[in-house]
Design a protein that fits this description.
The complex is a heterodimer of chains A (about 190) and B (about 110). By secondary structure, chain A is mainly α. Chain A has six helices and no strands. The chains are: A mainly alpha (about 190), B mainly alpha (about 110).
């Protein structure tokens, strides 16, 4: 049973991944990525990672993907014309990936795993066990993560603020390389 | 040796690792081939997800919880990366008309 679940989820993930690369419109790429994330969450459940499964659905498929969809809705339908500029890079990237997969396959043939730790698998991966690890041994990285999120939030607010010298909030007269001083000089200094 | 007993059937850890490698390769192709900056960000998310699958697989294989904890950390980093990357993209798209990542070459010497 778990075998069938694995292969269905793996096929979903690979098809979604192909969709991410192959679709021309960005919104279809985003929706394909949602399919990949849902398939991966099923695999996390197979690997007895219940909490990671929940976080994957709520944070990734819920929040991050909705963010991508908002940005696409904000920017309008983007057109992608420049593929003709690529001469040989497409073939080169295909070759690169085939070599990568070949190396991975060759490595997995003779791999020896160390003996697994003896853990109670009924407790493994639950919210309780994750919390014990996160709030005792890994408390310091966990607190550092909050600083990372704070920095990211401040950075996003700074980047998307309205320019003070630009009442429209957008490009008034074309490119504006003179805004290299930080771009938000008050009008009195101009 | 590397098989895991999941729900009564034997699954091999290397299958999960190989699936993760395939997803990572697809993401790498997306970054290398696609020219839309938004799609490049989406492909990077795909690669981060593939890495997460590897972490969770090894956590289950070695029955050690640290892999799952690190996967949670990497999800946080991915969320922060998406937020900052999308903010930069929105700012760039507001300032000029960009169709291609090659149009953003102001820093080229």
């Amino acid at each position: 049973m778990a075998l069938a679940v694995f292969f269905v989820a793996a096929a979903m993930a690979v098809l979604g991944g192909i969709g991410v690369v192959a679709f021309h419109q960005p919104i279809r790429s985003v929706l394909s990525l949602v399919v990949v994330m849902l398939a991966l969450s099923i695999l996390y459940l197979l690997l007895s990672a219940q909490f990671v499964f929940a976080v994957q659905i709520i944070v990734y498929a819920g929040a991050v993907m909705v963010l991508f969809l908002f940005v696409i809705a904000l920017l309008g339908p983007a057109r992608e014309l420049g593929r003709g500029r690529l001469r040989f890079q497409g073939w080169l990237s295909g070759l690169f990936v085939v070599v990568l997969l070949g190396l991975m396959w060759a490595m997995l043939q003779g791999v020896q795993y160390r003996q697994p730790d003896k853990t109670d698998l009924s407790f493994f991966g639950t919210v309780q066990s994750i919390a014990v690890g996160l709030f005792t041994t890994y408390l310091y990285p966990f607190e550092l993560t909050s600083i990372l999120l704070l920095v990211a939030a401040i950075g996003a607010i700074y980047l998307s603020r309205k320019r003070i010298d630009d009442p429209e909030g957008g490009p008034a007269e074309g490119l504006r390389p003179a805004a290299g001083m930080g771009g938000n000089l008050p009008p009195s200094e101009k | 040796m590397s098989s895991m007993n999941i729900g009564g059937s034997q699954l091999d850890a290397s299958w999960f690792l190989l699936l993760s490698a395939v997803l990572f390769g697809l993401g790498a192709v997306g970054v290398l081939v696609r020219r839309n900056p938004l799609v490049i960000l989406i492909s990077i998310e795909l690669m981060l997800n593939a890495a997460n699958l590897t972490l969770v697989t090894f956590a289950r294989q070695l029955q050690n919880l640290e892999g799952q904890l690190f996967a949670l950390m990497s999800m946080t980093v991915a969320a922060a990366e998406a937020v900052v990357g999308l903010a930069i993209l929105v700012d760039i798209f507001h300032t000029r008309d960009v169709e291609d990542v090659d149009d953003l070459s102001e820093l080229k010497g």
